[in-house]
């Protein structure tokens, strides 16, 4: 695996790299829902994430799309329809997210 460099040319830790891609508050939850529930529309995702603003959700979805972890499909209908699904690269995160899910259920309170 080729070492990653930060903006100053220093080597990056692989965990730091991963967290840079999925570490924002809502990204892992978005990926989890798409992996478990399959393709979802924007409104369905927003409903599954109580507390997230439209601005933040839109930003997180755009960044995940730019990192090729999810695919955005827009249908030219009236009203407009947009769906999100995991890419093959995004699906490779599911074992990690499954472990996080299991750990949270085993160690969290009230789940």
From TrEMBL:
InterPro entries: HTH_HxlR, WH-like_DNA-bd_sf, WH_DNA-bd_sf. Keywords: DNA-binding, Transcription, Transcription regulation. Pfam families: HxlR (PF01638). Residues 13-111 form the HTH hxlR-type domain. This is Helix-turn-helix domain-containing protein.
């Amino acid at each position: 695996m080729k070492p990653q460099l930060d903006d100053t040319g220093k080597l990056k830790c692989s965990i730091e790299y991963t967290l840079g891609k999925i570490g924002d508050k809502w990204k892992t939850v978005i990926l989890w829902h798409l992996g478990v529930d399959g393709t979802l529309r924007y409104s369905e995702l927003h409903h599954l994430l109580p507390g997230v603003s439209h601005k933040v959700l839109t930003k997180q979805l755009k960044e995940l799309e730019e990192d090729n972890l999810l695919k955005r499909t827009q249908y030219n209908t009236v009203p407009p329809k947009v769906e999100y699904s995991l890419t093959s690269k995004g699906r490779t995160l599911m074992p990690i997210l499954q472990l996080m899910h299991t750990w949270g259920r085993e160690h969290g309170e009230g789940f």
